[in-house]
Request: fold
Amino acid sequence: MTATSKTLRDEIENGIVTGDFQPGERLDEVQLATRYGVSRTPVREALMQLGAIGLIEIRPRRGAVVAEHGPERVFEMFEVMAELEAMAGALAARRHNEADMASIIAALEQCQNAAASDDTDQYYYENEIFHRAIYSASHSSFLEEQCLALHRRLRPYRRLQLRVRNRMKMSLSEHGGIVEAITAGDAEQARFLLRNHIAVQGDRFGDLISSLKT
Amino acid sequence: MTATSKTLRDEIENGIVTGDFQPGERLDEVQLATRYGVSRTPVREALMQLGAIGLIEIRPRRGAVVAEHGPERVFEMFEVMAELEAMAGALAARRHNEADMASIIAALEQCQNAAASDDTDQYYYENEIFHRAIYSASHSSFLEEQCLALHRRLRPYRRLQLRVRNRMKMSLSEHGGIVEAITAGDAEQARFLLRNHIAVQGDRFGDLISSLKT
DNA sequence: GTCAACCATTTTGTATACAAGATTACAGGC
DNA sequence: GCCTGTAATCTTGTATACAAAATGGTTGAC
Reply:
């Protein structure tokens, strides 16, 4: 498993997302180095990148640990994510062109297919493509980057959420309304729907809390 | 000028903000190392951190250059900043306590003092404290971090903006309205005012463009 | 005269060696 | 018996050495 610093970053990130490295766990540089067959230097580079993303926490002279976010912290992250996605949707409603709509609608259909075959993992995948299509349609490359970065950071929690009963079907129907609003150029409606689509509130808040307890 | 990687990061960041390193300029690792009297290792660490922040662009195997953002890119960044600050204001309106309001009002008064003595640099400084007080009053540590990070990234451009004629006085009067809305607990009004306070639009867009041309 | 290929030089990426600070265990005192 | 101080060990941070890739210049051919 010979790796370079970039692949190493992905390896460790994947290890964190899949739970191979658990939240709060200490990431020892020499252990990782021997594990991946490299020296400490690229390991440190990878850890710093993950620290910048926020996946791990690096305390000076005291090593790196996998970030363990408390419920309220995760809630705050979803709160911000909701606002950013809402903004992307509002911009998309105003600025979208034919190509944008084509990819959004194509992604929506793939979501419907996945939901029809009750394939949660597939839906998760297609859902991501759908949201990315909206980011792209905002025609704000910076906003797109911010959304992608935060989305990636929230990926593990999103994944847990989808397992909740009926969430997939509700998500799908919400997608429909969002596409309608964007197509109609109704920026405020798109903003409103996307904010509620992402935000964790009501029952879903409880779902989130309980999923974090595992 | 013996430096460690953290101080080094600040040094280089400062160099970029003050224009010591100009946009598009190539940042040579050995040059920086000799300049600050350290080896290449901490220089690389500092550069990676700056790359993660977005202040510089690191192309694999091809070195680091100071990020040069085109006008539309800077516009997009202000667009997102406006939305995040608006969100912070809305949350602050709903969640603020006495201590929050005390620091917000104190910051507002310091802004007034600076404006009264026509001290642009001082106003710039107090303005930052004012906005930070609002981030803090949102009681969302994650949102606060995001705002601080983006604010820092936009710092050089903000600085240029304030030099525009009368901008300081307009900014100050807008601050007044924002504080009123937050005090009154009017989240939507706070959101609206802050969005417009930050957003670059109309004449100010032209001002920004021309300031980037220098 | 211009274009292309090859070689030299420069520069990034990785490995290893060394220094300094932090953690922990052990011993001595209260 | 418990707490505290000190020392040993372990881990991070930095320096240097080495490898690989990219850039630039020179030379040769068309």
Remarks:
- The first helix of chain A runs from residue 5 to 17.
- The interface with chain B takes residues 6, 41, 44-45, 48-49, 52-53, 60, 73, 76-77, 79-80, 83-84, 87, 140-143, 146 of chain A (CB under 8 Å).
- The mean pLDDT of chain A is 90.
